[in-house]
């Protein structure tokens, strides 16, 4: 089973979220997917600090199982 990371960027100020985004990369395990989601949040808070502070942005994410077809 493979896993796909899906995340949304939301604003506390507007009370709204952008449409969900699927990462292009698939992960081989649940823990690998969840760990990458955590890293995504840390990277976002560092790289987009000014924008995140100004707009009170946060990321919400989840991992979906992705069916794999063997040929």
Characterise the protein shown here.
The protein has helices spanning 30-47, 49-55; strands spanning 2-11, 16-17, 21-27, 57-66. It has two helices and four strands; from the N terminus they run E-E-E-H-H-E. The protein is an alpha+beta fold. Strands 1, 2, 3 and 4 form a four-stranded antiparallel sheet that branches. The model has no long low-confidence stretch (mean pLDDT 92).
- What's the helical proportion of residues? 25-40%
| Shape type | elongated
How many H/I helices? 2
Proportion of residues in extended strands? 35-45%
Mean pLDDT: 92
What class would the helix/strand composition place it in?
Answer: alpha+beta
Q: Summarize the helix and strand pattern as letters.
A: EEEHHE
Question: Can you describe this structure in just a few lines?
Answer:
With 71 residues, the chain is an alpha+beta fold.
List keywords for this structure.
alpha+beta, 71 residues, four-stranded antiparallel sheet, 2 helices
Can you lay out the helices and strands and say which pair or pack?
Blueprint: E1 2-11, E2 16-17, E3 21-27, H1 30-47, H2 49-55, E4 57-66
């Amino acid at each position: 089973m493979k896993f796909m990371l899906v995340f949304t960027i939301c604003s506390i100020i507007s009370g709204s979220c952008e449409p969900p985004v699927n990462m292009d990369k698939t992960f081989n395990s649940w823990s690998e997917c969840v760990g990458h989601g955590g890293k995504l949040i840390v990277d976002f808070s560092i790289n987009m600090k000014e924008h995140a502070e100004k707009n009170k942005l946060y990321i919400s994410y989840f991992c979906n199982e992705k069916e794999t077809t063997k040929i």
